[in-house]
Every structure is written in C-alpha cells, then in structure tokens.
Amino acid sequence: xxxxxxxxxxxxxxxxDLTRILNLKNGSYLKDRxxxxxxxxxxxxxxxxxxxxxxxxxxxxxxxSRVSVRELGDFSSRDSLLIMFDYMDLYFEEFFREEEDxxxxxxxxxxxxxxxxxxxxxxxxxxxxxxxxxxxLKERSAS
Length: 143
Hints:
Blueprint: H1 12-25, H2 27-30, E1 33-41, E2 45-54, E3 60-68, H3 77-97, E4 109-113, E5 116-125, H4 127-142
Antiparallel strand pairs: 1-2, 2-3, 3-5, 4-5
C-alpha cells in the first residue's frame, strides 16, 4: 500500500474489483448497463453507493447507504463500508429476481444488517432527459 493510500478505506483496486464482481455476477440481467461502485468519507459520516446505468444515462439507478461515524460502535469505518456494500449487493440480487420491480425509497430509510444500523435510499433517473431539459430551460431563459 502506498503512503497516499494508507488512509483510504478502500484502495482503487478494491473498488474496481467490487465493480467487476457485480458486473460479472449480474451479467445476465444487465442488458446494456453496468455497475459503478463509489464511496466517500467525511468526519461525520460514511457514504457508499452502487449505481446501475447504461452508457447514455437514460437509465441511472443510484442506491446509496450512509452511516454516521458516531453510530459505528465496534465496527471500523472499513468494515462498515463493506457491510453496506454487501447489503446493497443483496438488494440488487433481489431487484433482478423481482424483475426490476423492487425499489428502495427515495428518502433515507433505516436499515440494519450484520449488526450495523445505517440508512439507505435509491432513485431511478434519466440523466440524459434531465440534461436536455436543463439545456432547454437555459435557452428559454436566455431569450
């Protein structure tokens, strides 16, 4: 581990590995979509996200989990992050099993998994259409 990576919860290779595993494991359900795994840490909370999207971003489903650093208890930040990723992985398994008709609420909702209490939310968006709408509104406001 390099000096600049020693404070990271997960190094870039681990994020790439998690992404690759999700894409391989769910390959038969993906169609033209892929997963993206990400996280960030502040002094107050950990945030983990798994996004399922197509290249045009007409399908963009971001599922996020967060935990307050004060709520970690005996868990390390790294362990907490991995638990949230595990839970989201299980969610996506169920999402595909239910023919993509099982959604996480768009507002933060409480979850508990493997002894960790955290919150989760998700929303399906069409970023391509949102971008086009924004551009149209900019053009109208400029004239």
